[in-house]
Design goal:
With 102 residues, the protein is mainly α. The protein is built from 6 helices and no strands.
């Protein structure tokens, strides 16, 4: 999906507000979610923003930084992979498409 520059900048502005835990209107949230459903790139931006809001920006040279940069829900203990209970393919289900194919 191609976005014009104005839409991309608007989405990035909203995502930045989310990551810095600033107030985001319902209309802005719906706007971003609409495009996140259509674009894996925008979906990744949104996942990273949510992670940064919850856990702060993680150092890129740590495993938490890697998890955050890939947009994987793994920083919360509840979301950690449990090898005796979880299916690895389902655990990576929320990750970007290229990871699921690996």
């Amino acid at each position: 999906m191609l976005l014009n520059n104005q839409k991309r900048l608007k989405i990035q502005e909203i995502v930045k507000k989310i990551s810095s835990d600033k107030e985001v209107s319902l209309q802005e949230r719906i706007y971003v979610e609409k495009y996140a459903k259509q674009s894996t790139t925008i979906s990744l931006w949104l996942k990273k923003a949510k992670s940064i809001r919850r856990h702060g920006l993680q150092s890129e040279d740590t495993i938490n930084g890697l998890i955050q940069s890939l947009g994987i829900d793994g920083l919360d203990r509840d979301n950690h992979f449990k090898r005796n209970k979880d299916d690895i393919s389902e655990w990576f289900g929320g990750s970007p498409e290229w990871i699921k194919r690996s």
